[in-house]
Amino acid sequence: MRWASALWEVFVLRFEEALERYRKRRLTAEEAGEILGMSGRHFRRLLLRYEGTGRRGCTTGGSARCRRGGRRWPS
After folding, report:
1. In the chain, what are the domain boundaries?
2. Under a CB-based contact definition with an 8 Å cutoff, are residues 51 and 22 in contact?
3. Residues 29, 16, 6, CA angle at the centre, nearest 5°?
């Protein structure tokens, strides 16, 4: 298993654990986000994507951010 894949799996497992505790109302979104190193708002956004697409929803989709109008930003 590659290093990045291992880290990804650890993050997803931590997210799912925080999500379970959030759903049982043992954590607030802010507390769950703090455990994961993000804001409560970002945790809620990730939660919506996770519910919609499953584990694949947790990806950042960063490649779309480097494009503008279908063209790549100059280097």
Report:
1. 3-57
2. no
3. 125
d(CA 73, CA 65): 10
pLDDT per residue, tens digit, the chain (75 aa), is 587 888 888 899 999 999 999 999 999 999 999 999 999 999 999 999 999 888 877 765 554 444 445 555 555
DSSP assignment letter at 26: S
In this structure, are residues 37 and 30 in contact, taking their beta carbons and an 8 Å threshold?
Answer: no
Q: Which two tokens stand for residue 22?
A: 């959030």
User: What's the predicted TM-score (pTM) here?
Assistant: 0.70
What DSSP element (H or E) covers 71?
Answer: strand 71-72
Q: Give the strand pairing for 71-72 and 67-68.
A: antiparallel
